[in-house]
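assembly run, all chains below
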Amino acid sequence: MLEGVERRRLTGLMTPRAPRGSVPVAGQANEALQAIWDVVSRIPRGQVASYGAVARAAGLPGRARQTGYALRVAPRGLHLPWHRVVAAGGRITFPANSHAHREQARRLRAEGVAVRNGRVAAAALSDLGDF
DNA sequence: TCGATGACCTCTA
DNA sequence: ATAGAGGCCATCG
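ok done. output:
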């Protein structure tokens, strides 16, 4: 599911159909995306936050889905620590057998976060309270 | 304009 | 632990 998206990501971003002259990654609608990307980029190493927490910290309470969207369309150039964003309760969202799942688990463990059965240790989960 | 689709969440049962 | 219902909302065909 992600493979296709990932493969198509570059071209997709280069041509993000700009209706009525609005700019791809600089317009007003992207304010939310910028905020989300900013929050994600500030998640400390060795810690993880949920989609909902990120949305909240970005000033978008209740819009967890937008966090997912923001990460999906995030330019690679930003080098966001996307692996530090997990679903509620510390669950990894990707299918257990997927490449993305293994990659996320690998990156997390690489920075000392325990991952078991697609779950990160509760201790590593941050609510991003002071952002 | 409308309906379907998500890297989602919370509450119930 | 699992499942369903409802909610949220940008995108897309």
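The helical segments of chain A are 2-14, 31-41, 51-57, 64-72, 99-110.

Residues 1-2, 5, 50-52, 55, 62-72, 82, 85-88, 92-94, 100, 104 of chain A lie near DNA strand B (CB under 10 Å from a C1').

not gonna interpret more than that til we talk
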